[in-house]
Design brief:
about 300 residues; mainly alpha; two-stranded antiparallel sheet; 13 helices
Length: about 300
């Protein structure tokens, strides 16, 4: 029996819209059906925690190996943003140690509490539409970008907050991959809370939520790797909206600039944007002009 066509208030049939929605769901349905047989694991409140932690360490590992074993390769110097700064094993050990203890002392207890008090995640039979899948994640990233811009700027402008919290992250002015979560526990908890809750605004599908978490990790890690590879997101963006690794690398060099973690619009709007160095430590004309204006301002003080 055919499903009757829906009619809107203008009398126009909505059958085409319904069919389009079904087609969108069918596009993602094969990915969503991979859950079949694993529902008891994936509906657990612990699943997003394990997914994000395993993905984070798996994504960071190749860049760490590059910093250890490829530093004498020509391509390494070519794509490194600060090629004159060597990443040492002592630095890697230091950042990994803090990351490990943060996960043991803060992430793990929070995960256990979530497992005890949070109900199981309901897993619907149908996948999300492609439209919802995409715009929920993009909106979540823009919301987090604004939230962290405010948090980040305040922790630079207010001396007490910088000295006792955010200064931990700025121990290294030449970022490398493990600096991504080299954070004071308060910053780690704040970032984790904002990332986790942003998709709640849209009542997003579990597949969308998990993909958003992975995408957030990707853009955060990319911002700290210290490389400017041609295939990175900011180099694939023709609009110049995405900041990427060069922009955040410049923030570690000039801490009172480039507060946005992912994009550029608020930094440009409120005057905190600083042009970035590109691969090989090359300074663009825009960056040279910025530094010249900054020196002129200091001379006039």
């Amino acid at each position: 029996m055919d499903t009757p066509a829906l009619v809107n208030i203008s009398g126009v049939s909505n059958r085409s819209e319904t069919t389009q929605s079904q087609d969108d769901r069918l596009f993602l349905q094969p990915f969503w059906d991979l859950r079949l047989g694993y529902e008891s694991y994936m509906e657990s409140p612990l699943f997003p925690v394990f997914l994000s932690v395993i993905f984070y360490f798996s994504l960071c590992l190749p860049f760490m190996l590059c910093d250890i074993y490829c530093k004498n390769q020509r391509w390494y110097k070519k794509y490194k943003i600060q090629p004159d700064k060597e990443i040492t094993k002592e630095q890697i050990y230091d950042t990994l140690t803090l990351t490990f203890w943060n996960h043991i002392l803060f992430i793990m207890p929070a995960a256990v509490g979530q497992w005890i008090w949070t109900p199981a995640t309901p897993l619907p039979h149908l996948a999300p539409t492609v439209f919802d899948f995409c715009w929920h994640q993009l909106a979540g990233l823009f919301i987090f970008d604004f939230q962290y811009y405010v948090w980040h700027m305040s922790h630079h402008k207010i001396r007490f907050l910088y000295r006792h919290i955010h200064a931990v992250h700025h121990r290294y002015n030449s970022p490398f991959v493990w600096v991504t979560q080299y954070l004071h526990p308060w910053e780690l908890v704040t970032v984790g809370f904002l990332t986790t809750t942003n998709t709640w605004f849209f009542n997003s599908h579990p597949l969308t939520v998990w993909s958003y978490m992975i995408m957030s990790i990707v853009v955060s890690v990319e911002a700290h790797i210290g490389f400017d590879f041609p295939f990175l997101l900011h180099n694939l963006d023709p609009t110049g909206t995405i900041g990427g690794s060069p922009k955040h690398d410049m923030h570690h060099q000039k801490p009172l600039t480039n507060y946005q973690p992912f994009f550029n619009h608020f930094d440009k709007l409120f005057g905190s944007f600083c042009p970035a160095m590109s691969a090989g430590g090359k300074k663009s004309k825009a960056l040279q002009d910025y530094e010249r204006r900054a020196r002129d301002c200091k001379k006039n003080l």
